[in-house]
Design a protein that fits this description.
Elements: E1 33-35, H1 57-65, E2 80-81, H2 84-93, E3 101-105, H3 111-118, E4 122-127, H4 130-140, E5 146-150, H5 158-169, E6 177-182, H6 188-195, E7 202-210, H7 211-218, H8 229-237, E8 238-246, E9 251-252, E10 259-266, H9 286-289, H10 296-306, H11 314-324, E11 325-328, E12 349-352, E13 362-366, E14 372-376, E15 433-434, E16 438-439, E17 446-452, H12 460-467, E18 472-479, E19 485-491
Parallel strand pairs: 3-4, 3-6, 4-5, 6-7
Antiparallel strand pairs: 1-8, 2-9, 7-10, 8-10, 11-12, 12-13, 13-14, 14-17, 15-16, 17-19, 18-19
Helix pairs in contact: 2-3
Bound molecules: S-adenosylmethionine (SAM).
Organism: Oryza glumipatula
Biased composition (Basic residues): 416-428
GO molecular function: RNA binding; rRNA (adenine-N6,N6-)-dimethyltransferase activity
Amino acid sequence: MVALPSLSPPPPRPSPSPATPRRRPPPPPPPHATPSHRVRSRPATVVSAASGVTDGYHSTIRSLNSRGRHVPRKSLGQNYMLNSKVNEELVAAAGVEEGDVVLEIGPGTGSLTAALLDAGATVFAVEKDKHMATLVNDRFGSTEQLKIIEEDITKFNVRSHFLPFLEEKSHHRRKYAKVVSNLPFNVSTEVVKLLLPMGDVFSVTVLLLQDETALRFADASIQTPEYRPINVFVNFYSEPEYKFKVERTNFFPQPKVDGAVISFKLKNSGDYPPVNSAFNGKRKMLRKSLQHLCSSSEIEAALANIGLPVTLTLPVLARFSPVVARPSGFSCNNSGDGSSSSPTGHCRWAHIHPAPGKISTPIQLIHPHLVHVVAYKNPRYAATDQSPLSPPLRFSIRRRRPNQSPRGGGDLGFPRPRRRRLPPRHRPLLPSSIPGGLRRVACPKMRPVFCGNLDYDARQSEIERLFSKYGRVERVDMKSGYHGASLLFLDDGLGSTFPA
Ligand SMILES: C[S@@+](CC[C@H](N)C(=O)[O-])C[C@H]1O[C@@H](n2cnc3c(N)ncnc32)[C@H](O)[C@@H]1O
């Protein structure tokens, strides 16, 4: 923890004496962003017209101390920006201009907020730390140009809170907002997952992240071993561009790593290709990534049919998807071509068929935007139908035998915990924990069903209603750590199937 020196009023500098212990804070670090372009020589601290104060080392310390001594919290990623030039570069990277509406995550002491207000933007700021929210409020007073919400961005429903604000500020004309933020490093992936699919609200998202993370997000070459599902996600929803590196000396307290600014130009939701299942694989080798949908030979035949390579790019995936997935309603009645819409009314469901003969292969009911349900094929129906083109199989949630040792969450999309195998009489039946804070099901009849990629508006009650057709839903756990994921506990009764 860093003990902040009190600087109000700043004491006169004592003449240095070897006997006196040094009490003054270290001098301001040489502010240095290393832009890939536009290197301008400017003073380290710039007077903000909106705020009337400078944002540098001393002013940051002063504002942190202004409401009692405030020690930056590591758990909240509180590394404050000391260099106003970096803030200005952030604002410029987002092309913020007069009349723009901007979402800022974590305004902190308000240094970036000041730069945004100076550029003529109206700012909607979400700050988790009560102390910092009050501090920004004090700094800017009551202005029409700024609204501060004290909330955790990862639990915040951006759509329902931000859209009315956007409409009001843009005078009910359809206008895209922007996101500009010096993010706490520890929530960057969550925030990226939250914001990128919102191309109908935001045109561009400019974030100051950990340099390594920014490099990873901006990597568009899928042939490298570092390529991860997050890259598919990022490139699916946006066009990322690495802007410039920000050295760690620009922050207080100084983090252990450098930062970097990255911009994501968001795509409009109407243009997304329906390729959700491709998010599951690390490399986009179709034969492997999609082996749960059809057999390898069928995948290869489909590829040959449309003249595709085995390793995919996003546009190619978009062309391939309809060959293996047929759109259907969620409440499909064995005809497989239902067209009911999702609970939030956005899109249709795509029903993917299981690989022949793979009894416990996860069967994915994939919805381009809403939900991705992993259920398990019931061995009882293994013999009924094997062809991916015939009417859909009947599924049921896989049943766990009452005396079966609790298996890890691997089948549910969570890593399987390592367990020491106990003799049967010692095996803990129920309840036990699996990673992610989820509890095992207490009743052997209750089946956990994992739903991912939930829409931001999706509510617990909607999921409950959706699944209640297939059995008694004991409860729905909305996972906040995972982007839009929930786990629901379903008692489908002995004879019932999923979907019916
Ligand atoms: C890296 S500091 C940036 C502060 C300021 N924007 C600046 O440039 O100096 C991150 C800020 O985000 C806030 N924060 C941390 N976690 C948050 C969360 N989950 N939701 C909203 N704000 C958060 C912290 O309290 C802190 O003020």
